[in-house]
Structures are given as structure tokens and as C-alpha cells.
Design a protein that fits this description.
The chain is an all-alpha fold. The protein is built from 18 helices and no strands. The protein has helices at 15-34, 40-47, 55-78, 80-100, 104-130, 135-167, 170-174, 176-187, 204-219, 231-252, 268-297, 303-308, 311-331, 336-354, 361-375, 379-390, 395-422, 427-451. The protein is globular, with a radius of gyration of 21 Å.
């Protein structure tokens, strides 16, 4: 609030303009996280860099997680539509660099640039929706966005495999150029911010510590590093990441211009919601990374067949997100749905873990679809709770904080899953332990969901946004 003026423009875009304006950038950002996975082998052959090829993924994820809070802060200060356009432009520049990459080092750098743009696509999409609608209607649109995001991230490997086989691996990056241009056109149709530009300062040490933490965590997921010959290397990386993370939060609590306001964590609803996002990220990435690997390694399916087996799982995530958004908008209940959903997911995963080899492929696909349905109950609710608690003036950093927590969880989940499978003597035993680990992630998320104090949208919040 400034001089009695609302922080964001009072006019609301039409539903179609708003949804398309945020859905296309969100789809691009989420798909870029996974579409490259099925092209890694071809990339490694092109540059003879099989041992280091996972850094194509790590560079993107690290830059994505580091930049998300920056976009949140800048969007809150100088306008979210403006920052979304900048994010799209950077993402397109990185994609063009990947298409033209003459060397492996060039490709990794271009992927990092692409990730710097991608961090804004996801965080700002959530904030742009939240600034336009009151909480109950916002819940429905968060469900729509969650459906788009989860479907895009799951469809990424399938689409990446098709494009790579038909046109070569550079085609998966070339696809981003027309999509990014379409996103720019749609975002520019959204109403601009009408308040004057605020002064904003970013603390460089905060960015450096966050970057060190994310790079060390993500390095654990690289087959050439996290699964190295000695556990000493992985342990050193984990300790280094822990120290960098502690120093980051310690510094954030003391600096005048924090990247991630620690005051957020003093609010129990925000603290529990971010922790829930962390465990959801660990569970989601673990499952969607290793389900195709399981079908390929243990059931001897081809890469294309394993990718197609994810389609019913994708449908489950989308249905869960849509149904949860509808129920929240009708009932006002929030944490009830992720708590119940994750309880069901944990029970199913325990059964899968104990009897993995006894299930047919069709039965496993059905059970994983039910788990995905349960996973769809989480992220829309988490975003809604955090945004209500932080208020409209910090919607960008609120969305980014949830994304940061989810990214940290994804890194931890991928690293832990890789260590579980890598330390098992037999393939079936390794995946059984993996699914039991995922059940633990779901149980932790369920407990956190029940502990969130802000479990219902009250009447006073209907006009909050």
C-alpha cells in the first residue's frame, strides 16, 4: 500500500488472457527441467563426454533454483509482467545457445543461462495468477496451473525422446524459441503494473551462498560424482552443502536486504508449508525420475515404452490438481487435502515397496497413477497458504520461496534415491528400498500438512487479494 493506492492494478484480465499468459511460460519452464533427460545419451555421443553429461541437467537446475528468489524479489518491486518478459527473453537466449553449441562446455554454459530464465517462468506464473483473484477462486486456478506444470514435466521425457529420434537432440532446444515467442506475445497482453518503481537492493553474498549450496547438492545427483567410487566424495559434498545452507540462512537473518526473508519462517503456516513443499519435491522427483528407470532396468522395456507408461501417471497428477483446486474453492478447506492425499500415497508406496516384483506392469502403472493422483493435492494448496500468509505485497517472493524449498527437496530426493539404488546388490531389491524411501517422504509430508495451522480460507480472506 502506497499513498492509499493498491499495490497492483485493480483491473482484472479476462480468464482466457490470464490463463494463457501464465500457462505457456509455466509449461516452458517445467518442461525444460525434464525434456533433456532422454537426449543425454545422444548429447554424450556428440561431444564424447559421457562421464560429465549429467552437468547438462545440473547446470539448469542450479541456475533455476538460484534465480527463482531473485525474480520473486524483482517482481514484487518493479512488476511481475515486466520480469516475466525478461525471464522469457533470457530463457530463449539460453535455448538458442544450446542449439548452436559447438562444444560441451558451451552447452553447459548455455543450459545455465536457460536455467536463469527458467527460474522466473515458474515463480512469476504463480504470482501473476495470485495477484488477480481472491483466495477461493485463486485455488481453482492454482489447480489448473499445477496440472499444466506437472503434465509438462512428466511429458518432457516423452517429447524429448520423439524429437531427438526424429530430428536430433538440438531440436529439443529449438522448440523453446517459438514457444518463448508465443509466451512473450501472451504476457504482453496482461495489464501492466501501475505503481512507481520501488528501490531494491540484492545482497551478493546471499546469492553466492545459495549458489554454493545448490551446486553442491545437485552435484550429488550426478552419476560421475554422487555415485563415485568412494563414499567420501559424496559425504564431503553433502557436508559442504549443509554448511553453505546454514551460512545462507544465518546471513539472511542478519542482512538488511535478504534474498529470502527469514521472517517468513517465523510464521508456522509458512514454515510448515515450505517443509511440505520440500518433501513433495523429494517424492515427486524420486518417483518420476526412477519409475521409467525401473521399467527399463527391471522389466526390460524400451525407453519409448517406459516413457509411455508415465502417461496414466501424468493423468493422475492432473486430475488430482484439478479436483483439489475445485474442492478448495468450494469448501475453503486447504491442508485437509494434501494430508489425506499423502496418507494414501504412503500406504500405496509401502505396498509397492514390499511386493514390487509380484505386481504386473499394468497393476504397477495403476498403483503409480493413484500415487500421482495423491501428489496432485499438494502444490496448489501450499502456494495458496504461503501467499495468503505473506500478503499481496510479497506474492513473488512467496511463490519463489515455495519453489526454492521444492527445488532443495528435489535435489535431496534425487541424491538419496541414487544412493539407495546404487548401494543395493540386486536391481529389484534396490527399487523396493527406493519405493519404501518414497513412502517415508510421503509420511513426512502428511504429518507436516496436518501441522499447518492455516487450514481453511476464512471469510475475511475472500477479499484479501
Amino acid at each position: 500500500m502506497k499513498n492509499g493506492e493498491p499495490e497492483e492494478p485493480a483491473q482484472e484480465p479476462s480468464v482466457v488472457v490470464l490463463f494463457l499468459g501464465v500457462a505457456v511460460p509455466l509449461l516452458l519452464g517445467m518442461m525444460d527441467q525434464t525434456i533433456v533427460s532422454t537426449a543425454l545419451y545422444d548429447i554424450s555421443r556428440s561431444f564424447a563426454s559421457f562421464e560429465l553429461v549429467s552437468w547438462v541437467v545440473i547446470a539448469y537446475l542450479a541456475a533455476n533454483a538460484i534465480s527463482a528468489p531473485l525474480y520473486g524479489r524483482l517482481g514484487d518491486a518493479i512488476g511481475r509482467r515486466r520480469m516475466m518478459c525478461i525471464s522469457l527473453a533470457i530463457s530463449m537466449a539460453g535455448s538458442a545457445g544450446c542449439v548452436l553449441a559447438p562444444s560441451f562446455a558451451w552447452l553447459v554454459i548455455a543450459r545455465a543461462v536457460q536455467g536463469l530464465g527458467g527460474g522466473g517462468l515458474i515463480a512469476l506464473a504463480q504470482a501473476l495468477v495470485s495477484q488477480a483473484f481472491e483466495p477461493r477462486l485463486r485455488a481453482r486456478f492454482q489447480g489448473y496451473l499445477a496440472t499444466v506444470g506437472m503434465s509438462a514435466s512428466t511429458m518432457g521425457p516423452v517429447l524429448g525422446g520423439i524429437l531427438t529420434e526424429a530430428f536430433g537432440w538440438r531440436a529439443i532446444f529449438a522448440l523453446n524459441l517459438p514457444l518463448g515467442l508465443l509466451g512473450l506475445i501472451l504476457v504482453l497482453r496482461l495489464p501492466p503494473r501501475k505503481r512507481p518503481r520501488d528501490e531494491l537492493r540484492i545482497n551478493g553474498l546471499s546469492v553466492a551462498l545459495l549458489a554454493a549450496s545448490m551446486l553442491l547438492l545437485l552435484a550429488l545427483t550426478a552419476p560421475g560424482i554422487g555415485a563415485l567410487q568412494t563414499r567420501w566424495t559424496a559425504g564431503t559434498l553433502l557436508v559442504g552443502a549443509g554448511i553453505a545452507t546454514l551460512l545462507f540462512f544465518r546471513h539472511e537473518g542478519r542482512t538488511k536486504y535478504p534474498l529470502f526473508p527469514i521472517v517468513f519462517l517465523r510464521n508456522k503456516s509458512i514454515r510448515m508449508s515450505c517443509a511440505l513443499a520440500l518433501f513433495h519435491g523429494a517424492l515427486y522427483v524420486s518417483l518420476f525420475t526412477f519409475i521409467p528407470v525401473y521399467f527399463g532396468a527391471a522389466r526390460e522395456f524400451s525407453a519409448a515404452e517406459s516413457g509411455l507408461l508415465l502417461l496414466p501417471v501424468t493423468l493422475g497428477v492432473g486430475m488430482g490438481s484439478l479436483l483439489t483446486g475445485y474442492l478448495v474453492s468450494r469448501t475453503g478447506q486447504m491442508n485437509l487435502f494434501p494430508a489425506a492425499g499423502l496418507a494414501i500415497a504412503s500406504m500405496i508406496l509401502i505396498v509397492i515397496g514390499l511386493f514390487t516384483a509380484q505386481f504386473s506392469v499394468a497393476a504397477l502403472a495403476g498403483l503409480f497413477s493413484l500415487v500421482a493422483l495423491a501428489l496432485g493435492t499438494v502444490m496448489g494448496v501450499v502456494q495458496l497458504i504461503v501467499q495468503i500468509e505473506t500478503g499481496d505485497g510479497m506474492l513473488g517472493i512467496a511463490s519463489a520461496s515455495v519453489l526454492l524449498a521444492r527445488s532443495l527437496g528435489a535435489s535431496i530426493g534425487a541424491a538419496a534415491s541414487g544412493l539407495v539404488i546404487g548401494s543395493s546388490a540386486a536391481i529389484d531389491a534396490g527399487f523396493s528400498w527406493l519405493f519404501l524411501l518414497d513412502a517415508c517422504f510421503a509420511l513426512c509430508g502428511m504429518l507436516l500438512a496436518w501441522l499447518i495451522p492455516h487450514g481453511r480460507i476464512g471469510k475475511t480472506e475472500l477479499g484479501h487479494s
